């Protein structure tokens, strides 16, 4: 028999399950509504979906540097409570998600959910099973994947047991020096600096033009009422923008372990000591639950 959109919508409203799950349940049960509800409950889909209305803002930031797939991954997976986040089952769940991301290279969290894992299940099905097993809503909130090799070295750093996570990538012509001093100390220190200093950009020319324009607008507004020539006010505003770069751009920041030098100077100093042309090429920093806004779309995952 043909299953109508109205039937699917009604079942979804009743159970909270996804559209495709509802359609399959109705099809398998010849359109019988009550049997379809029972079908979803037996599959653990309805009970899992009911939990998706609850806020998932705990969890962990997890990193993986995987030699098999030649990729590094930083991923944030959320659950409801810190208690569940610390369990072995949740940590294993997150590690499997990270391993899949390293292997399959999805572009977005939405694309990730549709991919099939080695078990043959989709990631979405795997997440729903995890929700049913652990009894809490969970979601893969965000991730980044850096390929390994090609003259690039990647270091990960996890702070406070998964509250803050960092990936940092540096270019190094001689890969043989990646495991030797002073590079190992340098890359470790930079990753810890990123965790502590919260840079937003790598360098000044990466700051969007609209952000710079807004900072200048704010600076000029702060100078209103000062009886100074326009060119002087412009120079003061430019100075304030440069200060903004020093606070938000990694290479311009003062090194947390030695504020007499910038990260840019530290990089040059280390490269010289190694006899290498060394450069930090990119980084990612995640803070657990940072800016989490739970929407109806997010809670479907």
What would the keywords be for this entry?
Tetrahydropterin Synthase, Chain A, Helicase, Ruva Protein, domain 3, 3-stranded antiparallel β-sheet, disordered C terminus, 46% helix, alpha+beta, 301 residues
Question: What features would you describe in this structure?
Answer:
The protein is of the alpha+beta class. Among the domains are: 5-51, Orthogonal Bundle (Helicase, Ruva Protein, domain 3), CATH 1.10.8.10; 58-198 and 286-300, 2-Layer Sandwich (Tetrahydropterin Synthase, Chain A). The protein contains twelve helices and eight strands. The protein has a three-stranded antiparallel beta sheet. A three-stranded antiparallel beta sheet has the order 4-5-8, with helices on one face. Residues 293-301 have low confidence and may be disordered.
Strand share of the residues?
15-25%
CATH superfamily of the domain at 58-198 and 286-300: Elongation factor Ts, dimerisation domain
Seen as an oligomer or otherwise, the chain set is single chain
Instruction: Please tally the β strands and state the result.
Output: 8
Mean pLDDT score: 90
Element-level helix/strand string? HHHHEEHHHHEEEHHHEEHE
Largest sheet: 3 strands, antiparallel
List the helices and strands and how they pair.
Blueprint: H1 5-15, H2 19-28, H3 33-43, H4 45-51, E1 58-66, E2 71-79, H5 82-85, H6 88-104, H7 109-114, H8 123-134, E3 139-147, E4 152-159, E5 164-171, H9 183-197, H10 209-222, H11 230-248, E6 254-255, E7 258-262, H12 263-274, E8 279-287
Antiparallel strand pairs: 1-2, 2-3, 4-5, 5-8, 6-7
Helix pairs in contact: 1-2, 1-3, 2-3, 4-8, 10-11
């Amino acid at each position: 028999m043909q299953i109508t959109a109205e039937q699917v919508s009604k079942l979804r409203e009743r159970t909270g399950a996804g559209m495709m799950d509802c359609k399959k349940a109705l099809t398998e049960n010849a359109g019988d509504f009550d049997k379809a509800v029972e079908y979803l409950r037996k599959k653990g889909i309805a009970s899992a979906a009911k939990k998706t209305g609850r806020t998932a803002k705990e969890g962990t930031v997890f990193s993986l540097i995987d030699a098999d797939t030649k990729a590094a991954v930083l991923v944030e997976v959320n659950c409801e409570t810190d208690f569940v986040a610390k369990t072995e089952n949740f940590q294993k769940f997150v590690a499997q998600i990270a391993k899949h991301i390293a292997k399959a290279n999805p572009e977005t969290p939405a694309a990730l959910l549709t991919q099939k894992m080695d078990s043959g299940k989709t990631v979405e099905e795997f997440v729903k099973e995890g929700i049913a097993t652990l009894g809490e809503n969970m979601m893969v909130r965000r991730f980044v994947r850096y390929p390994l090799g090609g003259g690039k070295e990647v270091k990960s750093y996890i702070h406070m047991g998964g509250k803050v996570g960092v990936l940092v990538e540096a270019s190094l012509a001689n890969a043989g020096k990646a495991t030797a001093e002073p590079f190992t100390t340098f890359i470790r220190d930079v990753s810890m600096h990123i965790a502590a200093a919260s840079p937003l950009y790598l360098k000044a020319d990466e700051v969007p033009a609209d952000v710079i324009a807004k900072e200048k607008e704010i600076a000029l507004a702060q100078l209103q009422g000062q009886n100074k020539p326009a060119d002087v006010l412009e120079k003061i505003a430019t100075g304030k923008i440069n200060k903004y770069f020093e606070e938000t751009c990694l290479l311009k920041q003062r090194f947390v372990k030695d504020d007499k030098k910038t990260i840019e100077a530290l990089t040059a100093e280390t490269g010289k000591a190694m006899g290498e042309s060394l450069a930090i090429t990119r980084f990612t920093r995640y803070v657990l639950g940072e800016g989490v806004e739970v929407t109806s779309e997010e809670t479907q995952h």
